[in-house]
Amino acid sequence: MTPPGLTTLPSSHTARDTMNRLEAAVKAAGMTVFGRIDHAAGADSVGSSLLPTEVLIFGNANAGTPLMQSTRTIAIDLPLKALVWQDPAGQTWLSYNDPAWLAKRHGLDGTTDAVIAKMTRALEEVARAATGS
Length: 133
What we know:
It contains 5 helices and 5 strands; from the N terminus they run E-H-E-H-E-H-E-E-H-H. 26% of the residues are buried. It is globular. The protein is an alpha+beta fold. The protein has a 5-stranded antiparallel β-sheet. The two termini are 20 Å apart. It has helices at residues 15-28, 39-45, 61-70, 99-105, 113-131; strands spanning 6-11, 32-38, 53-59, 80-86, 92-97. It has a single domain, classed as TATA-Binding Protein (2-Layer Sandwich), CATH 3.30.310.
């Protein structure tokens, strides 16, 4: 079951390829990549194991700033994050928070609807480029 506000898409690529494609798509869309966290490598470093699980942190100040100006608490959810992970059956998935859900979570008023819509379209585009769906 997918938690509320989380969009999850299957990928037709491996986890590593999906993450590489996502990072390339984010950069091509003019967004900034702030970090890439490999949780499986972290697990390995402490002698544990974890199926491929990586988070990409990215964003665009032109989109995020108006949201934070409206409601400062949304900064806890910005910059955006996307998770690429593999399930035990070997299927790769890409998950991210739905911007409309973030807006609702933080009680943004209607003045930011255009920014939220643009952010949603950008996430959908980079997710499709990464997953091949």
